[in-house]
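Dear colleague,

Thank you for sharing your sequence with our group. We've completed the structure prediction you requested, and as agreed, I am returning the results in plain text so they can be pasted directly into your records. Please verify that the sequence below matches your submission; if there's any discrepancy, let me know and we will rerun it promptly.
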Amino acid sequence: MPQVFDVILSGGVLVNQDGEGLRDVGLRDGKIAEIGDLSRASAGETVDCRGLHILPGVIDTQVHFREPGAPHKEDLESGSRGAVLGGVVGVFDMPNTNPLTTGEAELADKLARATGRMHCDFAFWVGGTHENARRLGELERLPGAAGIKVFMGSSTGSLLIADDAGVAEVLSHTRRRAAFHSEDEDRLNIAREKGALVHVLHVTTEEEIALLAENKDIASVEVTPHHLTMDASDYARIGTRAQMNPPVREARHRDGLWRGVAQGVVDVLGSDHAPHTLEEKAKPYPESPSGMTGVQTLVPLLLDHVNAGRLTLQRFVDLTSAGPARLFGVAGKGRAAVGYDADLTIVDMKRRETIRNSWIASRVGWTPYDGKEVVGWPVGTFVRGAKVMWEGELAMPSQGASMRFFGAL
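Please find the predicted structure tokens below.
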């Protein structure tokens, strides 16, 4: 009796944990059910993937979707729409919303807002503060929590922990890997003293890469596509649209980040999608806010870098699916393997496209890469077996769900 699947992805090059090769992929009940020659099998839908690459679904572990608090910039629906249009199957949203995500009630509110509205799967960082430090061990294990996020470099209100004692108190109560927004990596010694694992967000300098390379037993490293693609010369081209925190720096630092990618020091990519309106960005510096869109352009920018020889396609997979799953213990995601969620990013490595503001789904409607030509483009996004995006169009209503984590099951 022939095998029967809900969907067969036929004739594509599958990139997974054992390399690249021509393989069909059979999906059933939201999971990957079979990999191999499925020419004799049948399915409710067969998707022709000849000439395309099938990747484990891309997870963006740092986005700011601005809900609740600033819906004129972004909300969970529009941000996640941009994610799946860009080939992203899941996101971790940051806690610096209004109100701040620092407790069980705020996390539950975000989960309720996301359910039935978000197009991709989701999790939410919980902000670590002086006030909630003793409860972090409970908060980090709540359903839908990506972990604890600590702002040490630049933030507002109670989310800013600027003192060593506060950092030590937070790390005394975390068991999962805690994420730090910090330009002071010397505080790694506090993590070591507390026996804590930390994740250093949006690293921007070659000196940080060198320091973190010496602390890989406790520290994981994120870089952003912005810092890998732009340098300080872009300020003359687009002005405050290139302004972000931490800043886009001189070319030597960008080159240092690429060395970190090549040497394996960098663990994951996060877009740091942080939209502001053009009117807000047009204010003179320093009144202009830091941040830009990024979730929708992460995949095309990095595929272009793959085609330029800066990293391999398998290294891209490591940074965007296997890496997030490994670091944060995402259950059922991060590999194109039987039994895993059928989260897949399907790309055309030869397609030449020009990124345009008109393509951007964000409420702010702009990207710093308007007019940039890239080679490599997301063609399809499958989330738990559902074809959510195909050829630049949403293919079904939103059905994103909360991600599950081994540290919180």
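Summary note from our side: The mean pLDDT is 95.

Kind regards,
the structure core
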